[in-house]
């Protein structure tokens, strides 16, 4: 199996627990979840594999008890089938309260805590008129209902502290978090923040604040107070609260392009780094009373599963993506004002690929970008520069905001810094290709317009028409209107050059530059028709542009086959742009 397919399958798995290694679940072709336990598993009489049907109205993994619950609703009669990680099953039934109109439909389900401190299930249900209620229940327990005052998704329920937290999404802005009191019916309190986790009367949130630099905070769900937490250096991305009496928080922060993991004590302000074997991207997968699980993946280090147990020990098991076998190196560098991740092959490089992430308000990390594509470039002697161009997050608000409505000048500075770095390795501009996806794809095209000596660009699902994109996003959610207005020139009177991300301007590349557009014809985000229009326009201008249409594919590949096809298309396109043979991953 090819690396892209291996990575797609592995990242689709669910880390559920740890028993002498990761306990993993994966959805197979029969539509069921299959749980695989390690051969050396010893706890709870675990055997495997275990099959969990996903044919219910909803399915929930109850982290505190490590069981799957499948929900079947017939009118007001609810049947719940629980399947433990040891294969044992339990079935229980209850009846929800009557509806005022029609029948209930389950919209969501989560684990909560009832007034007595026991684990419970909370269903979000809606009737035929769209009226929403929260129904708390459990095996042998009466049903308690709450009709929320706020609209949004229930993300936390804890009646020990009379707390129900509802997240109201606001498009590109931080959500509003509404704290309601189901027991006392006291006045609700709201804050603007990203909800990360909740446990024992506390919420771990990330607040952007007025500066735009996110910081970690604790939201006391009893007093409604918000207290900043002394967090590790870097861009705080996620957090989980340890399921013990310590009230410590495990914070995930990106520093110099790699993720770090720290245990933070909100009481003392102490922050302790956790030892990790290698760099890369980290993602939380589970947080239960037995421990906290993560998935790690990196271009050079490969993949692994991690488990932080209750004693604070980190356990690690290798994943299916092996370490890179070549002698390549990774360094976080600054080219003037431009931060980047610099991947260098074992031998002096013969060419360069500048990789441009999407967003724009995202950042390049050490991860298996483009499904491990960097590895084949390194094998072919090509240096890869993962550019955190101006407009990226992770380097302070000033770096993010400097590009707003000034994309031409600041991005040209970024590109020229890369060109100057390439010259130190005797790489000419004609041996530099730009590779980008989504917004980064639009930047790849723009780069060829600005620096006409470059070899060309490969743009995957590129954003080509900013005015259309802004109108489409704003029509779906009006909160996007101001966001786009702050960052781009959208006035009807503006010229194509002033709008920058406009097909009339982006198709003014040099005659010698090869350009490839790779786009799924079912892309619901950036729209394949814009790539087709740009390719037609470039063709009429006599430019060597090629549109590769992926039939039935959306903005990102949805399955293993689509993932492999996009990988293959991008590798072939970069090979054409640079005029080099780039073999498949060894």
Task: Describe this protein's structure.
- The strands form eight sheets. An eight-stranded mixed beta sheet has the order 29-30-32-31-33-34-35-36, sandwiched between helices. Strands 1-2-3-4 form a four-stranded antiparallel beta sheet, with no helix packed on it.
- It contains eleven helices and 36 strands.
- It has two domains: 93-318, Prolyl oligopeptidase, N-terminal domain (Methylamine Dehydrogenase, Chain H), CATH 2.130.10; 329-578, 3-Layer(aba) Sandwich (Rossmann fold).
- β2 (22-27) and β3 (33-36) form a beta hairpin.
- The protein is globular, with a radius of gyration of 25 Å.
- It has 586 residues and is an alpha+beta fold.
Task: Provide the descriptors you would attach to this structure in a database record.
2 domains, 586 residues, 8-stranded mixed sheet, 36 strands, Methylamine Dehydrogenase, Chain H, Rossmann fold, 11 helices, 4-stranded antiparallel sheet, alpha+beta
Number of strands: 36
In round numbers, the mean pLDDT is 92
* Major β-sheet profile: 8 strands, mixed
- Under CATH, the topology of the largest domain can be stated as Rossmann fold
- Distance from N terminus to C terminus (CA atoms, Å) equals 11 Å
**Low-confidence segments, ≥5 residues, pLDDT <50?**
none
Return the domain count. 2
Radius of gyration: 25 Å
How would you sum up the global shape?
A: globular
CATH class designation of the largest domain: Alpha Beta
Count every helix, treating DSSP H or I runs of 4 or more residues as helices.
11
Global structural class? alpha+beta
CATH architecture of the largest domain: 3-Layer(aba) Sandwich
Q: Please list the strands of the largest sheet in the order they lie side by side.
A: 29-30-32-31-33-34-35-36
Name the CATH superfamily assignment of the largest domain: Alpha/Beta hydrolase fold, catalytic domain
